[in-house]
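Long-time lurker, finally posting.

We've been working with Tubulin delta chain (Adineta steineri) and I want a structural starting point before designing mutants. I don't trust myself to interpret raw outputs, so I'm hoping someone here can both generate the structure tokens and explain anything notable. Sequence follows.
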Amino acid sequence: MSCIVLQLGQCGNQVGQRLFDTLIEDNLTHPNQTKLTVTNRSSIDDYIRDSLDKFFIQHENKLTARALAIDTELKVIEQLMDDKAQSKRHWHYEKKCVIEGRLGSGNNWACGYRNGSIAEEKILNSLRWQLEQADRVDTILPILSLAGGTGSGLGAYAVEIVRDELPRSFLLTTIIVPYTSGEVVVQNYNSLLTLSHLYHSADAS
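Top reply, 14 upvotes:
Generated this for you. Predicted structure of Tubulin delta chain:
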């Protein structure tokens, strides 16, 4: 059973990337070796194999994250891909599952939600591609921040359309809650609007 991660907004992409890095560190690093090859199954126990299969597509000794990386700002995605290219960790994102915009959301929930409708077809096509790579998907894991515009607005929209697309899949939303006094003036409004939508769309947050 597999898990597909939705990285939404700058915060969601940063946390999602770190999640996959941590999975690699935990599962492919050995105290006496810098790396264990994926093909060397005799040295990897069932737990590690299941963990990798759950979060990565394995093909020709390469690991591809079961993830969609989504943001409305080009610089966020460019930074994500640059960091990944410079990283020594042995996994990558599927290019067709990296969705970028050029307008941004300006910390505005409504703007982010509208951008979600613009990106809907790309999101669903990328999601369907990920579904085709798995024997079975039991969990969708959206990661988003409540404070900004993309993570909150587009994130709320994305969770809604995923719920409509996959009504029987378990939607476990990971939300990053802002400090009581943060740098985004409208973060309280963004948080309230997002939570009101996730309440109806997600199974748990």
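Before you design anything, note these points.
The first strand starts at residue 2 and ends at 8.
The chain has one domain: 2-201.
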